[in-house]
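About this split. The held-out portion is used to measure sequence recovery: a designer receives only the structure tokens and must propose an amino acid at every position. Recovery is the fraction of positions where the proposal matches the reference. Here is one held-out target exactly as it appears in the evaluation file.
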């Protein structure tokens, strides 16, 4: 531990300048293994701490506590404590500069400036799915993540809702007779058929960051819900009959991966109805 303390002492001795942005009277000192930055703030603000070494670009200082983060109240002699040994084992530097910055809510969430801050992301996607019947459906997904863990809701349909219910009868075999009340009769099918399809899911997701930008991450999602796919066929008597072998309803589930790169968000996965009907799904949208 003596060695680490020596590195910290050298770091403080070599610190040459301190800057304040939207804050004033910035001071620094060492207390044991921590660095203490004191400053004055004119009005309640979101606050972050940045550091530059040898004239380089300012970077966010992460392992901090105290008067930093959301809604820091105005006052004098406010204190930020930086714990450098939580970031790396040793620190030798010269010409070190600090910035204490006050900024808006959006910049706070974007910055990942301290581990005790809540990182919230929201995304909206347009979605498409293909079933091998063949069948296509379109919809949307909305979701939100809080420190990496999140939820989502999605809805998809082929946007033909007229046969979700109200069909005349259920047909198991197109070559079997139908009973119209006067005995078995072999119907004549026109060959016309339609499909009504929709699914609704809600689920959970986890997102792992791929850098300091909160809009760049990769994750996985798992959802549960309900849905149906009804195929109906038309008879010469103008009846719409549900064709049971190609119709499914009940429990649905979906799972897959989601990737966001600086906000541009892609999703790919699979969806099933009762483990009998399978679709490949994809989404494209924006995280903000």
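Reference sequence for scoring:
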């Amino acid at each position: 531990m003596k060695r680490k303390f020596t590195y910290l002492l050298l770091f403080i001795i070599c610190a040459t300048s301190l800057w304040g942005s939207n804050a004033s009277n910035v001071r620094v000192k060492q207390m044991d293994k921590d660095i203490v930055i004191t400053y004055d703030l004119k009005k309640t603000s979101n606050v972050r701490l940045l550091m530059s070494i040898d004239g380089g670009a300012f970077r966010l200082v992460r392992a901090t506590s105290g008067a930093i983060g959301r809604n820091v109240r105005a006052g004098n002699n406010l204190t930020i404590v930086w714990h450098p040994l939580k970031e790396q084992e040793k620190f030798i530097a010269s010409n070190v500069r600090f910035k204490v910055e006050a900024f808006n809510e959006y910049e706070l969430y974007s910055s990942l400036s301290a581990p005790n801050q809540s990182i919230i992301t929201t995304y909206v996607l347009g979605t498409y799915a293909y079933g091998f019947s063949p069948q296509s459906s379109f919809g949307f997904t909305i979701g939100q993540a809080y420190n990496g863990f999140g939820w989502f809701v999605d809805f998809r349909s082929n946007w033909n809702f007229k046969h979700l219910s109200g069909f005349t009868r259920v047909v198991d075999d197109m070559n079997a007779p139908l009973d119209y009340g006067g005995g078995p009769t072999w119907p004549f099918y026109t060959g016309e058929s339609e499909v009504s399809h929709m699914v609704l899911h809600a689920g959970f997701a986890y997102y792992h960051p791929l850098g300091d930008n909160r809009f760049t991450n990769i994750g996985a999602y798992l959802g549960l819900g309900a849905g149906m796919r009804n195929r109906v066929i038309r008879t010469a008597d103008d009846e719409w009959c549900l064709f049971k072998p190609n119709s499914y309803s009940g429990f649905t589930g979906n799972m897959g991966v989601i990737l966001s790169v600086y906000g541009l968000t892609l999703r790919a996965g699979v969806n099933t109805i009762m483990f009998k009907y399978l679709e490949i799904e994809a989404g494209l949208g924006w995280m903000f």
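Annotator remark: Residues 121-287 form a domain with the Porin fold (CATH 2.40.160.20).
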